[in-house]
Amino acid sequence: MAVSILAPVAYIGTLVIALLVFSRVYRKRKAVAFEKTNTPWFESHPERDVYQTLVAAQNDQIPEEVLKAALLSRAMTDVRRIIRMRDDKQALAVLAQKGSIGDETMTNFAHAEKELEAEILDVVSEANTYREGWGQIIFPTASEMVAHLKHKEIYYGIQAQRQAEVEALEKAGKPIPKPTIEMPPLVTPPGTTIQVQAASEGGQHSITTMSINNAEEESSEAVEGDGLGDSSTASSQPAKQPAKQPAKQNNKKQAAKAKATAAKNKLAATVADEDEEEEEEEEEDGADEA
Q: Which residues cross the membrane (predicted)?
């Protein structure tokens, strides 16, 4: 029985089509698995994109302060990522010892660490372009700002948390406890001293000390607010203050003199008493000898 020449051609064609279909399906599944196992540890870095966009604009209308602020915001995001990766590293080490995660996750984490190191070096080099030595203190400054913002979020979230708990108690029909301590406003106390580190042009660090006194600011604001009244009252207040100060000083001096005089009189009285006692003892000794 003669075999047609179309049979081997059909067989080869069917085999090729099957191989192509298998290759396409296999590559799709491999790509999906690769995306699942090799997803970036952090999805995006919008602060870095904003800074690079501002730098690439090369516009004279963009002041240098805006670029510095964008770079500092980028450093703050890097500080948050450093804290997160430090916590994740401990958890991943425990999971890896138990065998709960594979080597692919650890490899992905190692790549994320290298990317973050490169990001830190890039931020430091960019900071040094604005001023020599700023790269050494930009991350400590960003860390302080991140801690301050976290403190503010927690502080201002107390009221919302209490409101949610009050609503839960109302729904449950339970008594609502009254707050025993009122939350003071988050303000800087008077007399606070703030030290700001900055790098000079020669690369040396200089420390600027600023003293904040809210009481003086409030008093100045009160004086400005009372400026709608008579100008005579406003002008009379500064005149009274110098008059009160000498009076207070004189009173203090008189009190100090009175204390000194009383101490001298007391000392003289004690000395006289001691002399009298010595004379009496001498008389008694003489009488005994006689």
A: 6-26
Strand partners, 110: none
pTM of the model: 0.52
Percent of the chain beyond pLDDT 70?
61
In what helix (H) or strand (E) does residue 196 lie, and over which residues does it extend?
A: strand 192-199
Q: Give the separation between CA 230 and CA 232, rounded to whole angstroms.
A: 5
Q: Which helix (H) or strand (E) holds 134?
A: none
Inside any domain, residue 229: no
97 lies in some domain: yes
Domain count, the chain: 1
Joined tokens for residue 104:
């692919």
Q: Look up residue 228 and give its DSSP letter.
A: G
Is residue 227 classed as helix, strand or coil in its secondary structure?
Answer: helix
Which residue, 68, 55, 50, is CA-closest to 199? 68
What rounded mean pLDDT belongs to the chain? 75
Residue 137 CB neighbours (<10 A)? 14
Domain that holds residue 58: 39-178
Q: Is the CB of residue 217 less than 8 Å from the CB of residue 240?
A: no
Residue 163 tokens read as: 């409101």
Contacts of 64 (CB under 8 A, 6+ apart): 130
CA gap 148, 141 in Å, rounded: 11
In a domain, 95, yes or no: yes
Residue 45 within a domain: yes
